Amino acid sequence: MTDSLQISGLVKRYGKKVAVDGVSFDVCAGEIVGLLGPNGAGKSTTLLCAAGLLRQDAGTFAWKGVPLGPVRGQTIALIPETPDVYPMLTVWEHLEFVAKSCRLRNDWEARGRSLLDRFGMTEHAQTLGSGLSKGMRQKTLVAATVLAATPVLLFDEPMIGLDPLGQRELRQIVRDLAAEGTAIVLSTHMLEQAQSTCDRMVILKTGRVVAQGTLSQLQEQTGTHGTAEDLFLELTR
Amino acid sequence: MQDLNALLFLEWRQAVHRLRSILSSPGRAIFYLLVVAYFIAMAVLRGSRYHAQTAIAEPFASAILFAFITLVGVLAYGAASGVAGVFASPADARFLAGSQIDDRLVVFWLQLRRSVSALVRTTLSMLLYVALVAHDARGIGVGLAILGGTLGASAVAVPMLKVRARMGTRIAQACAGAIVAIGVFPLLAVLSGTFRPSPVQLGVERLGGGHFVNALFAGDARALAAFWLLSALLVVLAWFTGGDLYPDLYAASSRVFELRKRARSGAGTGFTAQRRYRNIAASGGLTALFGMARGSWAIVWKDWIGFVRMPGQRQTYPFGLAAGAVIGFLIGLYAVHSRSPLETMLVIMPVLFFFAVMWLSMGAAVSLRIDIAKPIWWFGADSLQQRLFAWVCATSWRTALFILVTAIAWAVAMREPLWALYALPCVLALVCYMRATGLAMYAIFPSSIDQRGPMGSVRALLTYLLGAPPLVAIAIVLGLSGGRAPVAAIVLVAVAVASAEVYVLIAFAASRISGRGFAIAQAEGT
After folding, report:
1. Does the distance separating the beta carbons of B94 and A80 come in below 8 Å?
2. How many CA atoms lie within 13 Å of A78's alpha carbon, on the beta-carbon side?
3. More exposed terminus of chain B, fewer Cβ within 10 Å: N or C?
4. Which residue of B3, B8, B10 is the best one to mutate when testing the A interface, meaning the one whose CB has the most A CBs within 10 A?
């Protein structure tokens, strides 16, 4: 069995409204899958269900073919749209808490330092969460998640509110993580970035998957030979 | 053990940084020291009173036990409705749900966190009592009973959440309602005995609840052991039922974050509030009336629209008013049936005033960020002081109406309708004055951490301190008239002085906020 996260038949209702209606897709280790769709398509709901923060009405999640239980924090980590950190913990203490709460081996400190160095956060190691910019909070969350070595990472609209440099840095981090074998789902509205960053795309509309595949596969399916934006508009019209 | 270590690390480091941030600002440190001094003084005062007290008489001893059961039932009902100890922030949800800590421990920890201030205060009070005034076991008995009760009451939310998740909200609410009924019916039965002793009241008293409460408070080892055993059983039950509750706690957390935001902005709260305002057209006589507002008074209209569009608010608010009327009427009835209604009211009024001040002060955290951070709020020619005055009125009238309805019902029960007339200006002045106090404090310490923290106690303390000028004015009027001044004149003078204080407090807040609106809005978020 390949290392992949399989989401099958996910259904989530809010009262009578069906927010996610039978969504199925998978993400392999080392792959970046873009989750695209207009507002209200069910992207965030899908990610919250996958992270175990919303209880799905139907559907299963499996990693390497093994069904995942309701508490999935060891396998799937979510980086939400607003990258909230503890305002009264320093960046380093965030890593320390993750090391303690995830029972990491004693070598975590060296890995933590190297992560901060890689993300350009070394000089902010002792900065409180309340003093961090959005980009730095994003990086703190990613560093903490990478430290915990969670094999699946879900990013919900990670680029919103980041300046161009921050966006470029985050894109590079995402690519690096995928190159190291992390399975990544990236929910985004930024179609050009999805096109340049993602290996495959899953397009949602009113809670359903309307198309999925690589850019060329999607172009073939729709007969549209334009950009990701053209495809998106064609599929979600 | 490792899991507990991780959670303790999280709380400890946050507490250390919070303390450092307080100490780094001398002004803040002084206010926090004031709160600590107030707490110690109150603890010593209460401790010495415990020593002086003898056993609690019936029916009040039994009433304490049944009131506690009712409180546990209410907490259980809250959990059954999705209101429980929840994640403190989205970061809390992300890090705790994403950790490898046993989720049952996290869930119970969250419930304990909700009671942490009660637990810490009781423990410190006990230590102070033992160190300063202990001559018998009474204070320790009270302290241990409160600790055990808090622990048990915290634990009860978890099984209720589980019932809700597995069997649905209705069944969970029915179970919790049963607990409330077990407490509230005997409570009403024993309290009814204060009017006229009845066989039902005597029957409930014979159950031995009052005897048990007195034994607990006296530090009786067997009573305490039994009570703590019950709490321990509830904790064990919470442990076994605490799995797979993250989605429910996350949903409840999202609601709480939203409600907290609205409560601080003065937009009001409602238990059934969902995440978004309903997109409905506001209409009706009151909307038309508020719609006539011009200039800075448009803030009142804006607040009304928010109130109308908040789901459940229009349903729950009249229910709250009705509850206030019933409470006021019952208090009036109790006083009028006592041997000396005036004397009884002189005993009850300070207690009610104390609770009103604590309740309003604690819950009166101010948030202006959603207003002052928006350019649209600053449009128009009116001064900031006028806007803030309109804001105080807009966010005070609902509370004022609730207290007023309670006061009118009380006056009716007392057969003194004129008192309702006197209550009108007094209540309006009191609520506006407390809101203005909160606003002035916000202008000095806008951070939401301060607002939610000990600032509640500081607001209460200030309310008492600023209550002195109206009292001095009343004393002067009474002195000048030789004690023969009419009640209307006394009310008029007190309200005039309180109104002047409101004016000064708002002017102070305006001077602090003027030219620094965006900085204050930013500071609020830190």
Report:
1. yes
2. 31
3. N
4. B10
pLDDT class of B275 with cuts at 50, 70, 90: very low
The pLDDT tens digits of the residues spanning A94-139 come to: 999 999 988 888 889 998 998 898 888 899 999 999 889 888 898 8
A212: left (phi over 0), alpha (psi -120 to 50) or beta: beta
| Gap between the Cα atoms of B526 and B521, Å rounded | 9
> A85 and B91 in contact by Cβ < 8 A?
yes
pLDDT digits (tens, 9 = 90+) for A60-105: 999 998 998 887 888 899 888 888 899 889 999 999 999 998 888 8
Residue B109's contacts (CB-CB under 8 Å, 6 or more residues apart) are: B7
Amino acid at B326: V
Query: Per the CB < 8 Å rule, is B244 touching A144?
Result: no
Residues of A in contact with B7 (CB under 8 A): 101
Residue B277 has pLDDT above 50, yes or no: no
Q: Do A101 and B99 touch (CB under 8 A)?
A: yes
**CA–CA gap between residue B384 and residue A169 (Å, rounded):** 43
C-alpha B93/C-alpha B80 separation (Å) is 20
Token pair 């080392």 is found at A30
Task: Please name the residues in contact with B249: beta carbons below 8 A apart, sequence gap of 6 or more.
Answer: B84, B86, B87, B93, B107, B110, B161
| Chain A residues touching B21 at Cβ < 8 A | 88
Instruction: Answer whether residue B63 shows pLDDT above 80.
Output: yes
Shortest distance, CA B39 to any CA of chain A (angstroms): 25
Following DSSP, what letter does each residue of B339-386 receive, concatenated?
Answer: S-HHHHHHHHHHHHHHHHHHHHHHT-----HHHHTSHHHH-SSS-HHH
Q: Which amino acid is at A124?
A: H
pLDDT value of position B269? 40
Query: Smallest Cβ distance to A101: which of B17, B100, B250?
Result: B100
Q: What number is the ipTM of this complex?
A: 0.84
pTM of the model: 0.71
Check pLDDT > 80 for residue B86: no
Distance from CA of B6 to the nearest CA of A (A): 5
Beta bridge partners of A156: A187
Give me the mean pLDDT over the B248-267 stretch. Answer: 70
- CA distances A67 to A63, A73, A86, B9, B356, Å, are 6, 14, 32, 32, 54
Question: Cβ of A89 and B13 within 8 Å?
Answer: yes
CB contact under 8 A, B97 and A73: yes
